């Protein structure tokens, strides 16, 4: 058996549990897929996974050590993320959509770009993701390996697991689109998601470095 197989399988199992645990990424994926369709849903998933990749890349090169070591750096990123989530949440509560906008003249690719941007920024502005990579991944890096290369491999595994799970959620959500496209359902989902985003904003604002 390859000496690196056990660490990789162990990390994959732990990362899978982390991935399927409902959180902000899950909430954003479900909301986007049900209100804007599968293309926008997959765009949001792509943005989320790109954010994971960037955090993993930063961790591999030791950049996220700054967040772990510097209270100021952590606080700046933390509050930027908290304010961004609060802004998204308040907007959804105060101005919920009444329909999926199918009859709107806005091109579909604009919705996909916006969904991609939201997924990416929501992930990048959450310093807890960086701290997770900095404290979680080293536990699965065996001795006498190239730390950067192995960290990037673990990051790729995490990104693949996240994309697979979130894409599955999109696939399972789309068949419900006709029911969920009801104006009442859309408004309630927007407001519910807005409340979830605000809750995550408060949680992030109150978080402290590990």
TrEMBL record:
Question: Which domain of life, per UniProt?
Answer: Bacteria
- Keyword Transmembrane helix part of the UniProt annotation: yes
Q: Where are the transmembrane segments?
A: 43-69, 76-94, 152-177
This chain belongs to the protein called LysE family translocator
User: Could you tell me the membrane topology recorded for this protein?
Assistant: Multi-pass membrane protein
Is Ribosomal protein among the key words of this record? no
Q: Which Pfam families match?
A: LysE
* Signal peptide residues on this chain, from the entry's feature table: none
Family matches, as PANTHER family: ARGININE EXPORTER PROTEIN ARGO, ARGININE EXPORTER PROTEIN ARGO-RELATED
InterPro entries with a match to the protein in the record: LeuE-type
UniProt entry keywords in alphabetical sequence = Cell membrane, Membrane, Transmembrane, Transmembrane helix
| Compartmental location | Cell membrane
């Amino acid at each position: 058996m390859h000496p690196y197989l056990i660490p990789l399988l162990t990390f994959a199992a732990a990362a899978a549990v982390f991935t399927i645990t409902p959180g902000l990424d899950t909430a954003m994926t479900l909301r986007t897929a049900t209100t804007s369709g599968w293309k926008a849903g997959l765009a949001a998933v792509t943005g989320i996974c790109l954010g994971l990749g960037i955090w993993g890349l930063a961790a591999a090169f030791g950049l996220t050590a700054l967040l772990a070591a510097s209270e100021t750096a952590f606080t700046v990123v933390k509050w930027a993320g908290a304010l961004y989530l609060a802004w998204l949440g308040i907007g959804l509560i105060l101005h919920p959509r009444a329909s999926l906008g199918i009859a709107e003249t806005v091109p579909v690719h604009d919705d996909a770009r916006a969904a991609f941007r939201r997924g990416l920024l929501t992930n990048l502005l959450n310093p807890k993701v960086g701290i997770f990579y900095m404290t979680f991944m080293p536990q699965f890096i065996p001795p006498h390996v190239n730390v950067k290369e192995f960290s990037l491999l673990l990051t790729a595994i995490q990104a693949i697991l996240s994309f697979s799970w979130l894409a599955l959620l999109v696939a399972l959500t789309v068949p419900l689109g006709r029911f969920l496209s009801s104006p009442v359902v859309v408004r309630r989902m927007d407001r519910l998601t807005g409340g979830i985003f605000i809750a995550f904003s408060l949680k992030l604002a109150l978080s402290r470095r590990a």
